[in-house]
Design a protein that fits this description.
Layout lengths: L1 H9 L3 H30 E9 L4 H11 L3 E9 L6 E9 L6 H9 L4 E6 L1
Antiparallel strand pairs: 1-3, 1-4, 2-3
Helix pairs in contact: 1-2
């Protein structure tokens, strides 16, 4: 596509080159957003967990997710400043097939040191 636009500019077809460039940019942006929404709805799940700040908690939760067939795509950890030593951990997880999220949330909730769990 880029070489075609370059040839059009070189041949003096500026209007066609500009129009094609805009069409390509708009279509790429729209397709990117569409793909991202489709993938997010279909395969990615977000798990928010509030846990006590203790060694090994992150590894224990990650192992539990992996044992259920989940693949962790992103982890975000934020410390709370409220005096309690707690962490807010957000996992973005991809599961190969449908998983019962309430069951996984309940299993995570039963771990020692877990204060709250929310699954999206």
């Amino acid at each position: 596509m880029v070489s075609g636009i370059g040839l059009a500019v070189g041949a003096g077809f500026l209007f066609g080159a500009i129009l094609t460039t805009l069409l390509v940019l708009v279509s790429l942006e729209l397709l990117n957003r569409l793909e991202s929404v489709w993938i997010k709805k279909r395969h990615l799940h977000i798990l928010h967990i509030r846990v006590a700040d203790e060694p090994g908690m992150l590894g224990e939760i990650a192992s539990m997710i992996a044992d259920r067939g989940g693949s962790i795509r992103k982890v975000d950890i934020q410390e709370e400043d409220d005096g309690e030593r707690c962490l807010n951990i957000t996992f973005t997880i991809r599961f190969p097939e449908r998983i019962e999220s309430p069951l996984l949330a309940q299993e995570v909730r039963e771990l020692e040191g877990v204060k709250s769990v929310r699954f999206e």
